[in-house]
């Protein structure tokens, strides 16, 4: 029987907007009422909005980008929905580094960002987008990596004196055409061409 994605049973079929979860990771779902993909998307969006408000609260004094901050950001975005929010994944994926390499690769990335910023290695937008691309490539968490990485890049852009990115001006989970453009831009960055991803981030 076919379903619209939003009405599909929770873990039934493919959802290109989300990384497939292991059975153990699926058991980390907190709200017991969720049985449909739509319900999960809605619950996650409420939590993500809370994380966004926390991240951009002008009264909050967040320190520099660190591993602890990235983990705290992910937990703020997903901690009401998933027990493993803010915890690095322990399972292999078809995208991302091996689990044992997540922490060291993230530290290297954060050191690179500090260097780029200190030495003006790239324009501010490019620094933030390169950070986003590398964080997505590491894929630290079981799920929610794209959204967490975009929010972290928005924060970095703002700290560098730029406005937040618009990321195609659409919900990348719900709007398939926009998501395809985003994925194509990420793949271009994988091949060394960062320009399409910068353009997408400001589109």
How would you concisely characterize the structure shown here?
The chain is mainly α.
Textual characterization of the structure:
With about 200 residues, the protein is an all-alpha fold. The chain has a single domain (about 5-200), classed as Fido-like domain (Fic-like fold). The protein is built from eight helices and no strands. The chain has helices spanning about 25, 35-55, 65-80, 100-120, 125-140, 145-160, 175-190, 195-200.
CATH architecture: Orthogonal Bundle
Order of helices and strands: HHHHHHHH
The overall pLDDT, averaged over residues, is 92
Supply the number of helical segments.
8
Give the N-terminus to C-terminus distance in angstroms: 37 Å
Helix content: 40-55%
Anisotropy-based shape: globular
Q: List unreliable stretches of 5+ residues.
A: 1-5
CATH overall fold name: Fic-like fold
Tally of separate domains: 1
Q: What attributes characterize this protein structure?
A:
disordered N terminus, 203 residues, mainly alpha
Any chance you could write out the topology, listing elements then pairs?
Blueprint lengths: L22 H4 L10 H19 L11 H12 L23 H18 L4 H15 L6 H15 L16 H15 L4 H7 L2
